[in-house]
Amino acid sequence: MSATSILDPHPDDWLTSERSNSITSQILPIYPLLKNSRLLGDVLKAWIIDEIRTECAGNMSTDDDLSDADVQLFFARKLWGHRLESLYLRKKSRLDLISYSLLRVNSRDLAYELYHRIKAKEDSFEHLCLEYSTGLERFKGGRIERQSIADFPDTMQSYLLNLKEGELHQPVRFGSDYAVIQVLEHIPACFDDATQDRLLMWEFGDWISGVTTSVIDHLECGI
Asked: 34 by DSSP, 3-state: which?
């Protein structure tokens, strides 16, 4: 959700005149330094979370040691808790889990050679992984259990969802390596507490990115 116009609450509504004046007085004098050092985004997000902590203080536990994650989750549940079921239905595919085998190597040509050897049943995935794979998964025959689809890069999510169990995918970029992946099992997500918390934190992540952009736009106008 990158467009701030569809965020709720809208960043411009949350950024009241009081908050606007506060962040301007604190940040504007050192704005060029923060921007050039690439710390601006982190500093603004820390300020936004501190504002949220103050906003929610009256309704939260009196424990002063609540983590930022606790504060964010409380805020997110207050704003979007009533939409959890619709969020779940909309994003369920990203929450599904897969168990899969992974074999990764530095060379594209080698990755294709190993892919064709596995596909032709000339050798087993496990044996080739132990011999060639560069990651620690080699010691488990390449097998990785129950990983969320959302943990993969966006470019990989679509084809992982479409692979049938047991199907082998041709080599793809995997960081600086090339990987051969075989899906072993699809595990549908369930609407449990952990899933609900993850959905809420996704919404919070989208929202705080929108607010950060709005604050930067405001500061730019003041320079």
From this structure: helix
Cα distance between residue 66 and residue 49, in whole Å:
12
pTM above 0.85, yes or no: no
Give the strands of the sheet with 97-105, arranged side by side: 143-148, 97-105, 177-187, 168-174
Cα 79 to Cα 9, 17, 41, 146, 214, distances in angstroms: 8, 21, 23, 30, 19
Average pLDDT value for residue range 206-217: 92
Burial of 222 (0-12, 13-18, 19+ CB in 10 A): exposed
| Helix axes 193-222 and 17-27, enclosed angle (nearest 10) | 70
What is the gyration radius of the CA atoms in the chain, in angstroms? 23
- Residue 15 CA to residue 17 CA, distance in Å, equals 7
Tell whether the torsion through CA atoms of 73, 202, 45 and 17 is positive or negative: negative
Measure Cα distances from 137 to 27, 106, 133 in Å. Answer: 45, 15, 8
Residue 158: what pLDDT?
81
Please, are residues 31 and 40 in contact by the beta-carbon 8 Å criterion?
yes
Q: Which residues contact 8 (CB under 8 A, 6 or more apart)?
A: 79, 80, 207
